[in-house]
Amino acid sequence: MSTPQKPIILTGDRPTGPLHLGHFVGSLRNRVSYQHEYKQYVMLADAQALTDNMDDIDKVHRNVIEVALDYLAVGIDPKLSTIFIQSQVPELTELAFYYLNLVTVARLERNPTVKEEIRLRDFERDIPAGFLTYPVSQAADITAFKASLVPVGEDQIPMIEQTNEIVRRFNRLYKNVVTKGEILVEAKALVPELGRLPGIDGKAKMSKSLGNVINLGATADEVAKAVKKVYTDPLHLKVEDPGHIEGNIAFTYLDAFDTDKAAVAELKAHYTRGGLADSVVKKRLEAVLQELLEPIRTRRAELAEDKGYILQLLREGTEQAREVAAKTTDEVKAALGLNYF
Predict the structure, then answer these.
(1) What's the Cα-to-Cα distance from 148 to each of 54, 62, 182, rounded to whole Å?
(2) How far apart are CA 216 and CA 230, in angstroms?
(3) How far apart are CA 139 and CA 162, in angstroms?
(4) Residue 281: exposed, middle, or buried by beta-carbon count in 10 A (0-12, 13-18, 19+)?
(5) Cβ(11)–Cβ(138) under 8 Å?
(6) DSSP H helical segments within the chain, as ranges?
(7) In the beta sheet, which residues pair with residue 13?
(8) What is the pLDDT of residue 130?
(9) Which of 7, 32, 229, 310 is 20–30 Å from 178 (CA)?
(10) Which residues are within 8 A (CB) of 156 and not within 5 positions of it... i.e. 6 or more apart?
């Protein structure tokens, strides 16, 4: 009997800076788990990063290695997960070119995720075409590997919906010329239980551009300084005052990273009735984060000493990814009748 094929996951990041605790909570620690259950492809989306970074391409180039270091340091294993560079798989661009004919500009402009990203970047009507067509590029990435699961945050669900619209339209119009069956696979959004992590300032999400992050490779001193800046309860002016948990980032982080839930619950009870200083809460938080990040930091520093090894791993993963993407592209071209020779 043949072994059933594992479900396929596609995930990844835009390499615009080193990864931080927000990435760890939202995706990285899940990927470490997923790689044992699924066939996982992890994409360094450098081509997509260029859609709004064409004026700073060096940032994208150097962060390909930085993000790869973060992947390996947290435990993503290249023997279990295929880590690859998007720009080095040209079949993805080719698929996106074909899919562009299956979606309208009006539909792209209605995509809630795209609309919000355009607003955040103040593009107004000066929208780079590559940025506007980002959902089509993402559809190409997902379908190239026939991924049935894509880990995303709630805000990215419209992107998966648009991918599936393209899949359904393609499958309706074209069939596999050999089997007469469907070629592309619909994907399901896999939303993590704990999504976005707020920044240390308590505003919005943890974001490189906002400077409110704690990087995975942060030094012990950098972690200590960041914890001191963590937003707590502005109304908790005296130690004896009752404090508030909701919106208190120190407790949000303890919920995310402290494995001793009973101790955290006791801290919360003490804080809300009064008599517990913010400094005590932050002292515990720092200890938790230092314990979490120390092995990641150490492993990352060791790996960073041999960039050639990192590039070799990426080359091997990219070659594997390209083989799979090429097979799907051949099937798509055959269905479109683009197989003249």
Answers:
(1) 31, 31, 14
(2) 17
(3) 8
(4) buried
(5) no
(6) 21-23, 29-37, 46-49, 57-74, 90-99, 105-110, 112-120, 129-132, 134-144, 157-173, 220-228, 249-257, 261-273, 278-304, 307-335
(7) 44
(8) 85
(9) 7
(10) 113, 189
N residues, the chain: 341
Q: Which two tokens stand for residue 194?
A: 């704990």
Q: How many CB atoms lie within 10 A of CB 313?
A: 18
Give residue 274's pLDDT.
94
- Is the sign of the CA dihedral 60, 21, 147, 114 positive or negative? negative
> b/e per residue, 37-72, with b = 16+ CB within 10 A?
ebbbbbbbbbbbbbbbbeeeeeebeebbbbbbbbbb
Exposed, middle or buried: residue 119 (CB in 10 Å: 0-12, 13-18, 19+)? Answer: exposed
19, 72 Cβ separation under 8 angstroms? no
Answer yes or no: pTM beyond 0.85.
Answer: yes
Q: In the structure encoding, which two tokens stand for residue 316, read together?
A: 């091997």
Q: Which of 81, 77, 87, 18 is nearest to 51 (CA)?
A: 87
Cα distance between residue 157 and residue 190, in whole Å: 9
Is the Cβ–Cβ distance between 257 and 288 less than 8 Å?
yes
**Model confidence pLDDT, tens digit, residues 151-170:** 998 888 999 999 999 999 99
End-to-end CA distance of the chain: 36
| Side-chain-facing half-sphere of 261: CA atoms under 13 Å | 1
DSSP-assigned letter for residue 97: H
**What is the per-residue pLDDT for 3?**
54
Q: Are 143 and 95 in contact (CB under 8 A)?
A: yes
Q: Is 304 exposed, middle or buried (0-12, 13-18, 19+ CB in 10 A)?
A: middle
**pLDDT per residue over 180-200, tens digit each?**
778 999 999 998 876 678 999
Q: Which of 180, 178, 142, 182 is nearest to 162 (CA)?
A: 142
- Name the strands in the sheet holding 39-44, side by side, starting at the edge strand that comes first in the sequence: 81-85, 39-44, 8-13, 149-151, 188-190
Closest CA to 83 of 271, 298, 310: 310
